[in-house]
Amino acid sequence: MPQMAPLNWTLMLIMFSLTFILYNIMNFYSLKYNYKNMNLYNNKIKFINWKW
């Protein structure tokens, strides 16, 4: 019969994984993009001469 991890370790694992996921979601949606810089970057890409 396989041994199971103690309940408090599994609860800690679930708690830390949920906080990690929520932290990453908050960071993903809180990014503030500067659209002027993005437009300049996109314009630079258009003028690259590819050799192939």
From TrEMBL:
Sorted UniProt keywords: CF(0), Hydrogen ion transport, Ion transport, Membrane, Mitochondrion, Transmembrane, Transmembrane helix, Transport
Listed GO MF terms: proton transmembrane transporter activity
InterPro entries noted in UniProt: ATP8_metazoa
Top-level taxon in the UniProt lineage: Eukaryota
Topology relative to the membrane: Single-pass membrane protein
Keyword check for Ribonucleoprotein: no
Transmembrane segments: 6-26
Any single Gene Ontology cellular-component annotation: proton-transporting ATP synthase complex
One record GO biological process: proton motive force-driven ATP synthesis
UniProt entry tagged with the keyword Nuclease: no
Compartment(s): Mitochondrion membrane
Family: Belongs to the ATPase protein 8 family.
Complexes and interactors: F-type ATPases have 2 components, CF(1) - the catalytic core - and CF(0) - the membrane proton channel.
Protein name listed in UniProt: ATP synthase complex subunit 8
Organism: Georissidae sp. BMNH 840458
